[in-house]
Design brief:
3 helices; 541 residues; mainly beta; 44 strands
Length: 541
């Protein structure tokens, strides 16, 4: 039998041959298909992370992160080749321009470069800088794709290094504090060309090892003091970092709603990186030194929050709480969640100095992007006299102004939070879509949770329950027989009775992502979207 070769088959053969002969690509690639799209960004688009999904004839894809920047954007040319001789410094006879033409791309600062790393690859970019400039080089890799199911440690571990025109390494970074995405700070010693190299820590590579690296004399926040404030107030803030304008101190209005918000600083080159800021409804105070022993403990109002820091070697902080006998009480540190490098631990003592409770790490499934849950939390019943002492220390014995924390003391009722997965649902008209609802139970809440849709369009409905004591339930959302013209955003609401009161909360849409073959994380995303459509018929075999 003879096989006809049409134009499509010839193109496929040519593509296969190109990939087979390309040493940087894997024949068994992790990504089966590529789609090229053109994105138009509005002039007034908010800088930062956005989410987008691909809508096809068969339905809606999972969401991916898309970052809107403030600087000129450059894309890594494809295919990209790095000159090994130049990398090891044996190409000194070539001119700077010829070497750049062979393996480097010139970018004008400030700029953001977009690229990806294939097996064994090292990407190089050249920029010009002026003596005295405080250059910040900030990489986004894990921030773009938080987890990879089939790679260890579970993400693209980017490494950046800065070199002079001869290839001599001047600076290097493979992380920033506890964040795997590196940030490099460098004061330019002399005017001229500099080279930036990006690679994987062990020279791995694949199609989804993508990155963005922003380069320039950019404002960068290393911390905010204090790390939070009471809702509905105004607070004096101090921004710590580099390339900020002279106004590092500012008076800032605080929103009326409790939760985490992002704060930025501004500088001559635009907006800085974001740092999470904790807003709560309870009274605030700040630590008063010297409180590094039980007899000098600061008093904490209940409920209340203390803003403190472990600034000097050997520093520990003691606080005293006065409640009523056998009263349930929680003590919780907010540090890592707010960008602080502190690895805090909490110890609770009675009047006699006897330890009642201790916690170092408190795993929080709601914090889907966290792999080291370094913020401790203790939930106890107070001693008979209602008095106890709390000690805050750093497990890794690190100190400095950045080692800040917020200690919250409260008597909150048992409660729960909800996550829904996946965040993109597809269904035929008049049928239903399957959804998993996860209940994260806090401080002993064990009751059933009734599930419904909040303010849903006509035709969409949900009537289900997470049984008492269960952590999740698979439910079905009914969709209308007449499909909407566009995907529909839905909100799942959970209602439970807690201490005689009906409590309703909105579920947070998330993706259930696997890390390094075994670990799973509920990673929050922007919305729960449902696409109702009749998929195309499959051609007969």
């Amino acid at each position: 039998a003879s096989a006809e070769l049409d134009e499509k088959k010839l193109r496929l053969m040519d593509e296969y041959e190109r990939r087979r002969n390309d040493p940087k690509r894997q024949l068994n690639s992790q990504i089966g298909e590529d789609v090229q799209v053109r994105v138009t960004i509005a002039e007034n688009a908010e800088p930062g992370v956005h989410y987008w999904r691909l809508q096809t004839k068969s339905g809606l894809s999972n969401p991916m992160r898309f970052v809107v920047g403030e600087h000129a954007e450059f894309n890594e040319p494809e295919p990209w080749r790095f000159d090994l001789m130049k990398f090891i410094g044996l190409d000194s006879n070539s001119s700077s321009d010829s070497r750049r033409d062979q393996g480097s791309s010139l970018v004008t600062l400030p700029a953001t470069v977009n690229g990806r790393i294939l097996p064994g690859e090292v990407d190089e970019f050249t920029f010009e800088a002026t003596e005295g400039e405080q250059v910040v080089i900030s990489v986004e890799a894990r921030h773009l794709i938080p987890y990879l199911a089939d790679a260890v440690p579970g993400w693209f571990q980017a490494v950046v290094s800065l070199h002079d025109p001869r290839g001599q390494e001047l600076a290097f970074a493979d992380d920033y504090r506890f964040d795997p995405d590196p940030v490099l700070f460098y004061k330019i010693p002399r005017t001229g060309e500099y080279r930036l190299r990006v690679r994987d820590s062990i020279y791995r590579g694949r199609e989804d090892f993508v990155y963005r690296v922003t380069i320039g004399e950019l404002p960068f926040l290393t911390g905010i003091s204090p790390l939070g404030a009471r809702a509905g107030t105004e607070v004096d803030l101090t921004f710590h970092g580099g390339n900020l304008d002279e106004q590092t101190k500012t008076r800032h209005p605080i929103p009326d709603t409790a939760g985490l918000i992002d704060l930025f600083a501004t500088g001559p080159s635009g907006r800085s990186n974001a740092i999470a800021f904790h807003v709560d409804s309870v009274p605030e105070d700040k630590e008063r030194e010297d409180n590094n022993r039980l007899g000098a403990a600061n008093e904490i109002e209940v409920p209340g929050i203390i803003n403190g820091a472990l600034t000097l070697p050997g520093d520990v902080d003691f606080f005293r709480v006065q409640g009523t006998g056998n009263q349930p009480m929680s003590f919780e540190i907010f540090g890592r969640r707010l960008g602080s490098p502190i690895d805090a631990n909490l110890t609770v003592y009675d009047d006699d100095g006897k330890m009642i409770a201790f916690n170092d790490d408190n795993e929080n499934p709601a914090a889907g992007l966290t792999t080291h849950h370094a913020d401790p939390r203790v939930f106890i019943k107070l001693p008979d006299n209602g008095r106890c002492f709390i000690r805050v220390a750093d497990t890794q014995n690190r100190y400095g102004y950045a080692n800040a924390y917020r200690l919250k003391v409260s008597q909150e009722p048992p409660r729960f939070v909800l996550r829904t997965t996946p965040s993109s649902l597809n269904a035929k008209p008049g049928t239903s879509a399957r959804l998993t609802v996860h209940a994260l139970r806090i401080d002993g809440f064990d009751g059933p949770v009734a599930l419904s849709l909040k303010d849903a369009p006509a035709g969409f409905s949900l009537n289900a329950t997470i049984p008492a004591g269960e952590d999740m339930a698979d439910v079905s959302i009914s969709v209308p027989a007449e499909p909407p013209s566009q995907p529909t955003r839905l909100t799942v609401q959970g209602t439970a009775e807690i201490e005689g009161k009906s409590v309703s909360i909105d579920a947070v849409p998330a993706e259930d992502m696997m890390q390094a073959f075994i670990y799973r994380h509920l990673v929050p995303v922007d919305a729960l979207m449902v696409d109702v459509r009749t998929p195309p018929e499959k051609p007969a075999p």
